[in-house]
Amino acid sequence: MEITFLNAIELLAGFQAFLFAIYLIFNKEGKRLSNFFIAIFIMLLAYNVLDFFADLILKRWSENITVLLQLFIYLAAPALYLHIKTSLFPNYKLKTQDLWHTLPFFILLGVVLSLIVYEIRQENVPAKTERIVGLAFYAVLYLQTFLYLYFANRQLTKHKEIFFENYSNTNTKRYGYISNLILFVAVLFSLSMVNIFTRWVFQFESFSFISYVVITAVLILFCWLIILGLRSPELFIDETEAQPSVQKLVKQNVDNSALKSEDENNKMAERVNQYMKEEEPFLDASLTLHTLAKETKISSRELSILINHHLNKHFFDFVNEYRIEKAMELLTSPDRKEYTVLEILYEVGFNSKSSFNTAFKKHTGFTPTEYRRKNSMAVA
């Protein structure tokens, strides 16, 4: 067989993907379960990319082996979904019901084994039957993938709600990574679907260039994941999971008749605000609702309901308002006139310039630089 330029790209993509997957599995500081699932996803995608070489090596024994191995691609979408779920919720434990994710794979495996047995007995399967079965298999693959991407996006939305109710950390790289991963895979499989149905179903050979687009997209995906692993290793390391969303906490308290009165909530809010102004715990970039609750001697449950429900603010926004107020003070302070905006944003508890600029403009209507210049001119 002649190895084409496309095959060379496939080999490059597959080789680097397998190396990165092995690194994720054996990385001792990593998120064991989450990394295992993304490694499985990467390896399944890589094998699918390397099917030309698999055919070249395995066909000497039996073509049926390569057909059976290709079925493992139906475990890719479930693996990606479980990677995202266990990445967002590191305390999640696999349950017996998670075995349902493997059902499509085993159903299709049964179909293929039946066809192989039929072929052995009858010598060959009619071409029309092969075509119908092939179409059905592709339809299941794309339907399955897009359904899992939808459910993964729902998990992301759910976790965002919990994060903003419990954390003040402005580094939200994890959300950007997962959002981009979902989008990238959606685009990749959309291109693959167009490639399959234009060339294989409608037999438009003029669209053969899409194969190059698809494999290049796979290569870019693998490169992007590897660069992320090197530049932002924290994305593949466990972090502590927060408590349930405030909606659940409020419902539980209503069921237990344990909600505070308006007067009690106002007194508690005054106590928290006074502590924030006097002790300035918001200067700690890693401040969490649990930490603040411990410092103010209020239970995490009561503090969560107070801020996220009674004050109708996310804990994230509640803390950042104090940080912005402090930043406004420092930006116009003569003692800090030599400080850069970057130095000030770190001093007040932000750890992301983009998050600081966005929050500052939302609160004041100006960028930090504009605000400093405007107030400097007013003083002059």
What attributes characterize this protein structure?
380 residues, mainly alpha, Rhopdopsin 7-helix transmembrane proteins
Notes on the structure:
By secondary structure, this protein is mainly α. The protein has helices at residues 5-26, 32-49, 51-58, 63-70, 76-88, 103-122, 127-166, 173-201, 209-231, 246-255, 262-279, 289-296, 300-310, 315-331, 341-347, 353-364, 368-379. The protein contains 17 helices and no strands. The model has no long low-confidence stretch (mean pLDDT 80).
Can you lay out the helices and strands and say which pair or pack?
Elements: H1 5-26, H2 32-49, H3 51-58, H4 63-70, H5 76-88, H6 103-122, H7 127-166, H8 173-201, H9 209-231, H10 246-255, H11 262-279, H12 289-296, H13 300-310, H14 315-331, H15 341-347, H16 353-364, H17 368-379
Structure annotation, total helices:
17
**CATH architecture classification name of the largest domain:** Up-down Bundle
Overall number of strands:
0
The low-confidence parts are: none
Structural class comes to: mainly alpha
Task: Categorize the overall geometry.
Answer: elongated
User: Roughly how many Å is the radius of gyration?
Assistant: 27 Å
Domain unit count:
3
Q: How do the helices and strands follow one another from N- to C-terminus?
A: HHHHHHHHHHHHHHHHH
Gap between N and C termini:
79 Å
Mean pLDDT: 80
CATH topology of the largest domain: Rhopdopsin 7-helix transmembrane proteins
The level 1 CATH classification of the largest domain is: Mainly Alpha
Approximately how much helix is present in the residues? Answer: over 70%
Reported for the largest beta sheet, the result is:
none
The share of residues in extended strands comes to under 5%
